């Protein structure tokens, strides 16, 4: 299983050194409008974050700016609505356990949690050696969207067929995906979830616009 929330939010002890180290790994890949991120860089970032997680998102996501672009007037901030420190979790999928999605398609996952008003927002950045990177996050997308297997399949198929940077919104309206540019071989995607189990105060159009704006921030 892919661990997103389950990786833990106890990364405050190592947040500063982890953030400094991983920021240096993606100098070009993290700047908005810059070069695409690399699979190897994301894997090293995930390895540095480790199982304890970290407090600061190492990727150059600016949720407040994305919200402004998407026409969302809610205030953006780090962490979830309970006021915790920014929750950053990661998985270095170069050596996935037997039966895991990483076993068939090695890669990496970095998840950053924010909030918009009272809406919890999770940004899952995933990259894999082969297409489709987003399939690794299929259980996460299904849980957050609260949709059945057929609708999930449609969502993944449409997301795989979309051009880079073009958002695809799940039937629930609170989950969106956008393929990301990747420096070198491999495949990468952003999975954005707002709220939980298919419930969000944002409209589907706003969620799609958020995903588009955030994807552009990674180049």
Features:
single chain; 219 residues; alpha+beta; 7-stranded antiparallel sheet; two-stranded parallel sheet; 9 strands; globular; disordered N terminus
Give a quick summary of the entry.
The protein is an alpha+beta fold. The protein has seven helices and nine strands; from the N terminus they run H-E-H-H-E-E-H-E-E-H-H-E-E-E-E-H.
Could you explain how this protein is built, in words?
With 219 residues, the protein is an alpha+beta fold. Helix content is 32%, strand content 22%. The chain has 7 helices and 9 strands; from the N terminus they run H-E-H-H-E-E-H-E-E-H-H-E-E-E-E-H. It has helices at residues 15-25, 39-49, 63-70, 101-104, 138-145, 149-161, 204-217; strands at 37-38, 76-78, 88-93, 107-116, 119-128, 168-169, 175-180, 182-183, 187-194. Strands 2, 3, 4, 5, 6, 7 and 9 form a 7-stranded antiparallel sheet that branches. Strand 4 and strand 5 form a beta hairpin. The longest helix has 14 residues, at 204-217. The radius of gyration is 16 Å and the shape is globular. It starts with 14 loop residues before the first helix and ends with a helix. The relative contact order is 0.18. The model is unreliable at 1-35 (pLDDT under 50).
Break the fold down into its secondary structure elements and pairings.
Layout: H1 15-25, E1 37-38, H2 39-49, H3 63-70, E2 76-78, E3 88-93, H4 101-104, E4 107-116, E5 119-128, H5 138-145, H6 149-161, E6 168-169, E7 175-180, E8 182-183, E9 187-194, H7 204-217
Parallel strand pairs: 1-8
Antiparallel strand pairs: 2-4, 3-4, 4-5, 5-9, 6-7, 7-9
